[in-house]
Automatic annotation (TrEMBL):
Top-level taxonomic group: Bacteria
Protein name: Helix-turn-helix transcriptional regulator
Region Disordered, annotated ranges: 73-105
Occurrences of domain HTH cro/C1-type (ranges): 7-61
InterPro entries per record: Cro/C1-type_HTH (IPR001387), Lambda_DNA-bd_dom_sf (IPR010982)
Length: 453
């Protein structure tokens, strides 16, 4: 017996399988199974559509989610769907009002009305009409709750493995898709596209880190389409920046620069602009364009003096922000690729200090781990093998779920640097356990250094 057997029974009584109910609500059938098993609760934006599908009110849905049976009126659900029963109700109404087809001298016999069944049928017609209004004329409060859910997920994504969040991200993104297909007022349609597109950005990050680059590119393409539909500069620039980030780690990193066009400060918030310029600096350094990399670093330093101002994407917080710790992380990685040990070490130290001082939910363990690798590289550039090994030591104590997928590629460059400095045997002794660390999905912004040297 499942924890919510009454919810399962109600779903069957309404003629739904888990698959068809999931299709009705635009959620995965596994989500429906998790509701019935008591593993998860429906998101706020799914409760009203679920109640409508089950032909009950929100209070009764609350009873089902608590594992309780419905009140008596709903026990006659099958009668409420019976056309013969409904015809009888119409006959009862005609008898009560005297509205009959022909006069007769026979006395009118008034039969008792099945009140529970009549009320249930009337309630279903009210729900049906409410759906018509939702499609045509009213604002949809579900959209506000989707925005809240997306902001929560963006914040959790910074410090939680993507695999743990993937079902919820899909659920929120698909709910936004469903609202767009169903229809909302024009003044809400733009917000729906913005939430759908930002959800696609989260899924693009998860897909890339789970090794499915085809899925990641599909998500990024749809995110940019949503940006065009919403006419949102911030979403457009975030989508193209994320595409550049994905391409930076591909076999054609130079293609990333095609997606990093100059951005106006009037078009986006300062954090989005800093992210774009930081990406340009690191991509340029990666492909050997030192002039453009240094120019981007100078512009990034200028942007540090501007006050923070959010746009409609960075306002979601979490992954979609670019705090000082992340800026220092990018600067350290860029100087490392440029071969500037002193600057790389300074910025790596700044990044680690900023992360240590940040609240726990802002501490991206992926960025912290890779910053330690950059710090080790800065010491190797100065031929200081012992200090480099000390910088890497905390990585050996990371729990398996925090050994991100980008860590082994980053360590492979460390291996090559140690091999040239000392020997391949020495590199293998120092790094063997880190090279074979089990991967875990993380944000693309926590990408490791995959440059050969």
């Amino acid at each position: 017996m499942t924890k919510r057997e009454t919810l399962q029974l109600r779903r069957r009584a309404c003629g739904f399988t888990q698959e068809t109910l999931g299709e009705r609500l635009s959620v995965d059938p596994r989500t429906v199974r998790s509701w019935e098993a008591g593993e998860n609760d429906p998101l706020p934006e799914h409760r009203r559509p679920l109640a409508e599908a089950l032909e009950i009110g929100l209070n009764d849905l609350g009873r089902l989610l608590a594992g309780l049976p419905l009140q008596e009126p709903h026990a006659a659900h099958s009668a409420g769907n019976n056309p013969e029963a409904l015809s009888q109700h119409e006959s009862d109404r005609a008898s009560l009002t005297g509205d009959v087809g022909e006069s007769t001298d026979q006395p009118v016999i008034i039969e008792p009305v099945d009140v529970p069944t009549l009320l249930a049928a009337a309630a279903r017609r009210a729900v049906d009409f409410g759906s018509v209004l939702a499609n045509a004329t009213t604002d949809d409060p579900d959209l506000d709750w989707l925005g809240v859910s997306l902001a929560e997920l963006a914040t959790e994504y910074v410090h939680t493995p993507a695999t743990d969040l993937l079902p919820r991200i899909v659920e929120v993104r698909d709910a936004a898709f469903a609202l767009i297909r169903r229809g909302v007022r024009p003044r809400q349609l733009r917000d729906a596209y913005l939430i759908a597109g930002t959800g696609c950005l989260l899924l693009a990050s998860a897909s890339q880190n789970l090794g499915d680059t085809v899925a990641a590119r599909a998500q990024l393409h749809t995110a940019e389409r949503c940006a065009e539909a919403a006419d949102s500069d911030a979403l457009r620039i975030w989508a193209r920046g994320s595409a550049a980030l994905a391409l930076e780690w591909s076999s054609t990193p130079a293609a990333a620069l095609r997606f990093l066009h100059p951005v106006s400060l009037e078009a986006v918030g300062t954090q989005t602009l800093r992210r774009t310029v930081a990406l340009e600096a690191r991509v340029s350094a990666r492909i050997g364009n030192t002039v453009r990399a240094h120019d981007a670093l100078r512009r990034l330093q200028t942007l540090e003096t501007l006050p923070d101002r959010h746009d409609e994407v960075s306002a979601f917080g979490g992954l979609f922000t670019f705090p000082d710790s992340k800026r220092a992380y990018y600067q350290a990685g860029t100087h490392d690729l440029l071969g500037d040990a002193t600057a790389a070490r300074r910025h790596a130290d700044d990044a680690l200090t900023a992360y240590a001082a940040a609240p726990e939910h802002e501490q991206s363990y992926g960025d912290i781990a890779l910053t330690r690798v950059t710090l080790a590289h800065s010491h190797l550039l100065d031929r200081d093998l012992d200090t480099a090994a000390a910088a890497l030591e905390p990585l050996r104590h990371l729990p398996p779920e925090q050994r991100i997928a980008q860590l082994p590629p980053a360590i492979r460059r460390t291996h090559r640097m140690i091999a040239r400095l000392d020997s391949t045997r020495r590199a293998r002794e120092l790094l063997a356990d880190l090279l074979h660390a089990p991967p875990a999905a993380r944000s693309l912004d926590s990408s490791g250094d995959r440059t050969t040297s």
